[in-house]
Amino acid sequence: xxxxxxxxxxxxxxxxxxxxxxxxxxxxxxxxxxxxxxxxxxxxxxxxxxxxxxxxxxxxxxxxxxxxxxxxxxxxxxxxxxxxxxxxxxxxxxxxxxxxxxxxxxxxxxxxxxxxxxxxxxxxxxxxxxxxxxxxxxxxxxxxxxxxxxxxxxxxxxxxxxxxxxxxxxxxxxxxxxxxxxxxxxxxxxxxxxxxxxxxxxxxxxxxxxxxxxxxxxxxxxxxxxxxxxxxxxxxxxxx
Length: 240
Prior knowledge:
Layout: H1 33-68, E1 79-82, E2 87-88, E3 91-92, H2 94-108, E4 114-118, H3 129-139, E5 147-150, H4 156-169, E6 174-178, H5 184-193, E7 197-200, H6 210-230, H7 232-239
Parallel strand pairs: 1-4, 1-6, 4-5, 6-7
Antiparallel strand pairs: 2-3
């Protein structure tokens, strides 16, 4: 048996001491200008897009109001419906008279067998708008038996909703709406909402013109824009 040389165990290598970083040598991460700018612009970009979309939507409806007021769709129908306006102790106001004069013209063209007059009365009035309208038409040759009346409403929606019920009971749905040009688009949309098959023939002799007509078209465009979204029944309830 031979003696073996004893194994020499080498100590493990020493790890270098940890490097101490002085506070002055610490580099904080710096955000670049581009991400900061992007975050700042993002909500503003969205807001700008929303505003632009709303403006385009409003302008599209303003164009629809303008076109409807200048398009005459007169054709044979079941009934001519004239929307009410102010009356003075049984005498139609100039605005209402212009609508009724156009109804007389359409009636003598033989476009319908019935005319529907609309509109209630204000507190203290002796006559309703519908009564004043009926008397005016009869005096100008429209047979009294041909004139139907809706005489309780105070706004366009309620007038057309009542007309729809009145005509539906007689099996009639196709109507020709007569009103002022600025009012035509909204009247058509409401008529469709209450179930009428409506076209329109705005009066060509409206007393509302110039700046006042443009102002009312702007207002009607706002109503049409909102009514298309929430419905015209709800819009009427909200605005009174």
